[in-house]
Write a structure and sequence with these properties.
The structure is a homodimer of 178-residue chains. Chain A is α/β, with parallel strands linked by helices and 178 residues long. Chain A has one domain (3-175): SPOUT methyltransferase, trefoil knot domain (Alpha/beta knot, 3-Layer(aba) Sandwich). Chain A is built from six helices and eight strands, in the order E-H-E-H-E-H-E-H-E-H-E-H-E-E. Chain A has helices at 16-28, 41-54, 66-75, 90-93, 114-119, 133-148; strands at residues 3-8, 33-36, 59-61, 79-89, 103-108, 122-125, 162-164, 173-175. In chain A, the strands form two sheets. In chain A, strands 3-2-1-5-4-6 form a six-stranded parallel sheet, sandwiched between helices. The first copy, chain A, has a two-stranded antiparallel ribbon with strand order 7-8. In chain A, helix 1 (16-28) runs parallel beside helix 2 and helix 1 packs parallel to helix 6. The radius of gyration of chain A is 17 Å and the shape is globular. Chains A and B meet through helix 1, strand 4, helix 4, helix 5 and helix 6 of A and helix 1, strand 4, helix 4, helix 5 and helix 6 of B.
Amino acid sequence: MTVIILRIGHRPQRDARVTTHVGLTARALGADGMLLTGRDKDVKESIEQVTRMWGGRFTIEDGVSLKEAVTRWKQNGGKIVHLTMYGINISDALPEINPNENLMIIVGAEKVPPLIYQLADWNIAIGNQPHSEIAALAIFLDRLNQKKGTDPLTQEYFESKLKLIPQLHGKKVINEEE
Amino acid sequence: MTVIILRIGHRPQRDARVTTHVGLTARALGADGMLLTGRDKDVKESIEQVTRMWGGRFTIEDGVSLKEAVTRWKQNGGKIVHLTMYGINISDALPEINPNENLMIIVGAEKVPPLIYQLADWNIAIGNQPHSEIAALAIFLDRLNQKKGTDPLTQEYFESKLKLIPQLHGKKVINEEE
């Protein structure tokens, strides 16, 4: 199963931190990559820098055409989830999702074009209250991983030269290359 | 059980959006309130505005003294969780947490003072990879709710005059006061 995030409506500078959080969250929860409809070299570089330091193979591509990305994904048989507070509750939707299928997860910034609601296989609400696309993505991926029975939140998942030694109190990081 | 977020190191303007997401995520996942060590009228107002519109009783207080808040919490018998990638994995820590105890969850912006690591009852890592304090809080609260057997992501949780009607495709909101 390939899981890819499509971040739409990103505005350079204004959304830089939130989009970076979206990308890092996707990576930490085992997604394979993120596509960005806007262009933002800084966001791209800061996520790539984390991957270089902390391991794994997370790809990020900016300046992507929304229509092309979605059309190609559908032609290849992938399914599309759109995270929105207007959708069907995650508890109702998750049982329908086959964890072996390739999944594109659309995460909007401000306004999302009506087209997206139509072309998504599932419009899924992580609750019907306004909160955060970062939180919504985190909970969706965590629950999807629970369903699949994998846990990228465990350390062994990433092959990293930097290793954290979990501490009751304090910080400990070792660099295995040194 | 009372669950309160203590957001530390907030820098007005620079952190406004991220701190707002932290607060809205806490609220949507059933926490009771957020304390903010810095002052930020805009963040406070935008979260209060959501609560007025969308229901529930989420309190927010800014300009709080870190030491006072923590000392008073401990004196009243509350426990403290600090979310940090350097801590013990959530899967290992969660079984130790009694869901009937009052919980303060500390969420840092950039640098967190070493004191916090010492005074926390649990330093908990939502994975040992760098990602997002918003995502970390979301997953912690979602898993805590799963353990408690409550789900604030269901609509009935909030008593709101605005009601979303979950849709397969599209948006539908009704205002029960009209």
